[in-house]
Known about the structure:
It is globular, with a radius of gyration of 16 Å. It is an alpha+beta fold. The longest helix has 23 residues, at 81-103. Strands 3-2-6-5-4 form a 5-stranded antiparallel beta sheet. 21% of the residues are buried. The protein has helices at residues 29-47, 81-103, 117-120, 122-125, 143-162; strands at residues 2-3, 7-12, 17-21, 53-56, 59-66, 69-75, 126-127. It is built from 5 helices and 7 strands, in the order E-E-E-H-E-E-E-H-H-H-E-H.
Amino acid sequence: MVNILQDIWIIDISGIVLYHRVYNKKIDDQLFGGLMCAINKVAEMIIETKITSINFGYKCFGILKKENILFIANSNENIGSRTINYELELIAHKFLNLYREHLKNEIIVDLSPFNDFTREIKDSLMVSKKKNALPIHNLKKNLPEFSEWIKKVRSISNQKTSL
């Protein structure tokens, strides 16, 4: 098994981390949440655009903002921001649908409802050895196969959306 997304944070617009799954934690999650919200706000104010990715050294972080929630994830250097952001779109859709009622509160005090979200996004977090698994161990060698995998994922996603 290979991780598609190594780390993920779901952060409300005030900087509170609602959910996270982080391997090899190096910084406090709430500090990271505040930092990323500040960077996002500066981008919106100064350059009047949204940030879709940011690089810290060799780590690429995909960033998606939906309904005042920031969805942030990273992966290894073989995975580009477009792939990360595609996974974040799927994750955001699941998260907002599952927790819409809980997110209606102006101030979210209880974060425990979000604890089980890992089960909901396990396919984005890990690539299994299933028939439609992404051959990610050598992405350059498998680029045509990767493109086919993306097409399959999109067609499945479109089928589910049209239901």
